[in-house]
Design a protein that fits this description.
Shape of chain B: elongated
Mean pLDDT of chain B: 76
Strand content of chain A: 5-15%
Largest sheet of chain A: 3 strands, antiparallel
Structural class of chain A: mainly alpha
Number of strands of chain B: 0
Order of helices and strands of chain B: HHHHHHHHHH
Radius of gyration of chain A: 40 Å
Largest sheet of chain B: none
Low-confidence stretches of chain A: none
Helix content of chain A: 55-70%
CATH architecture of the largest domain in chain B: Orthogonal Bundle
Strand order of the largest sheet of chain A: 1-2-3
Oligomer: heterodimer
Strand content of chain B: under 5%
Largest interface: A-B, 47 and 70 residues
Number of domains of chain B: 2
Number of helices of chain A: 7
CATH class of the largest domain in chain B: Mainly Alpha
Order of helices and strands of chain A: HHHHHHHEEE
Structural class of chain B: mainly alpha
Helix content of chain B: 55-70%
Low-confidence stretches of chain B: 1-30, 236-244
Chain lengths: 155, 244
């Protein structure tokens, strides 16, 4: 029975679909296994019936309006309403991708906001002037900076 | 153990499908000399459609509408959903016509799109059965009416007087299959894909293709068991007696 597990799925293979050793092995197995011969017979008896059944069902349907329906869909896709409908469908059918795509600019905006605020704080610290007389001491993020007036006193 | 199917990108197609002679016992519309001529004709229509010839595109739709619908019906089961899927497939074809390079047959490309849309439609409805194992085990080799089918239906099903009823039973049996088994059986039977082509289309190994086909056929045969017993009792079976 172990050989059946290996060879049963090979029943129904077409020319060229099995390697030569598989083909030989299957032929030898079928010679000695009545169950697999019955499987092969059932396979031959039902071959093509699925295709025939589905095509028979398709042939019973009226395809008169089909191509006009296709062209109408194509026209609707081109319209602005069609584009919005497709966007809506994308949101419905791919929520994670849509959420990620919507989240990305929000994250980027927050990052820019944080960066700008940090830079502004540094500028504000630089502008804190501590004027004692003529010389000014500027507080920067790197420490105090003394600005010395070049003009001599009294001029 | 289930395997997640990796989505295949389309409309890009990697290699040309080889033309394989059609086995006599298989009802298969995708192979043979006639299909080679049709492929050349398709490419001519595609070239005209690309340049804006609406009638050429309509001709392509009319040529493949029934087969595309049949493939969709086999996958999604519901007739109205299959109609939608089939129409949507041609809309996608129209949208991506400029990208079609002719490396594969036009029909292969259309059916590939149809398969994707059909599988998407089924998964959106979340109608899937749990019994969708891929490997073949000892327990799977149980009786599935093989012996009955071989004699009741005979070697020439066309000789069976109850053919129409049989086809109805086939359709009903197909609807009971899990989506994975139904899809692979439909692609094998209608589009005539080889094991390698099925493996590429569905993103699975060749061994998995063979296992799924085995399971799909076994379930179909089991579903036809009652019908085959009726036929056998009525003496309507046996090959060749009523053959043309």
């Amino acid at each position: 029975m172990t050989d059946c597990v290996r060879y049963a799925p090979m029943i129904g293979a077409r020319e060229g679909e099995l390697k030569s050793e598989e083909r030989t092995g299957l032929a030898e197995h079928l010679d000695g296994c009545a169950a697999c011969r019955a499987r092969a017979a059932a396979q031959r008896a039902t071959a093509g019936l699925v295709s025939e059944a589905l095509l028979a069902q398709a042939n019973r349907r009226d395809f008169g309006p089909f191509v006009d329906g296709v062209m109408a869909r194509i026209e609707r896709r081109r319209s602005p309403r069609g584009i919005l409908a497709r966007l809506r469908a994308a949101v419905v059918h791919h929520p994670r991708i849509t959420f990620g795509a919507a989240l990305a600019p929000v994250v980027a905006a927050l990052a820019i906001l944080v960066y700008v605020r940090t830079a502004h704080d540094e500028v504000a610290r630089v502008l804190e002037l501590n004027s004692e007389g003529v010389d000014m001491v500027v507080q920067t993020s790197d420490g105090p900076l003394v600005l010395i007036d070049d003009e001599p006193e009294g001029t | 153990m289930t395997r997640r199917v990796a989505p295949l990108s389309y409309p890009a197609v990697r290699r040309r499908r080889p033309v394989v002679p059609c086995p006599a016992e298989t009802v298969n519309f995708a192979r043979g000399e006639a299909s080679v001529r049709m492929e050349a004709d398709d490419l001519a229509l595609v070239a005209r459609a690309k340049s804006g010839d609406g009638e050429a595109f309509r001709a392509l739709v009319v040529r493949y509408q029934r087969k595309v619908y049949a493939v969709a019906l086999g996958i999604v089961k519901d007739a109205d959903t299959a109609w939608d899927v089939a129409q949507e497939a041609f809309v996608r074809v129209h949208e991506h016509l400029g990208a079609f390079k002719g490396e594969s047959a036009f029909s292969t490309w259309v059916f590939r799109i149809t398969t994707h849309l059909g599988i998407d439609a089924v998964r959106r409805e979340r109608v899937s059965l749990k019994d969708d194992v891929d490997e073949v085990r000892e327990a799977d080799l149980g009786d599935a009416a093989e012996g009955i089918l071989g004699t009741a239906l005979g070697s020439d099903p066309q000789a069976t007087a109850l053919r129409r009823e049989l086809l109805g039973k086939i359709q009903a049996a197909l609807e009971t299959l899990p989506e994975k088994h139904r899809t692979i059986l439909v692609l094998r039977e209608i589009e005539g894909l080889s094991y390698e082509e099925l493996a590429e289309r569905l993103g699975i190994h060749k061994g998995t293709v063979m296992s799924r086909l085995f399971h799909a056929r076994k379930k179909m045969q089991a579903a036809l068991r009652d019908y085959a017993e009726i036929v056998q009792e009525d003496g309507g079976g046996g090959g060749g007696d009523d053959a043309e």
